[in-house]
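Write out this protein's structure.
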Amino acid sequence: MTLLESIIASLLLAVTAVVCLEATRGAAALQRNSASWTTAVAHAEAELATVSSGGQSSGTTRVTRRAWRDGLDVLEIEVPTAGGASLRLTRLVERTP
């Protein structure tokens, strides 16, 4: 093996290593983002269950309830996520007397 061949092989190995490290970093970022959204969805569903059964919402969420039709209300739960975005969960629920 010549010096030129060994330099080219080392260069290819280095490029491959950089690509693998970048892919791993991207996968870790996606996992963190997914965990944040999963937590937000679980919190929104818990708030939906609490509010639709007549309870009070927590201070971190925004709850909007408006009449729709035929004894149904539109219930919107908006939960902030860690990244500064927000998740809005919208459901039709029976109107409480």
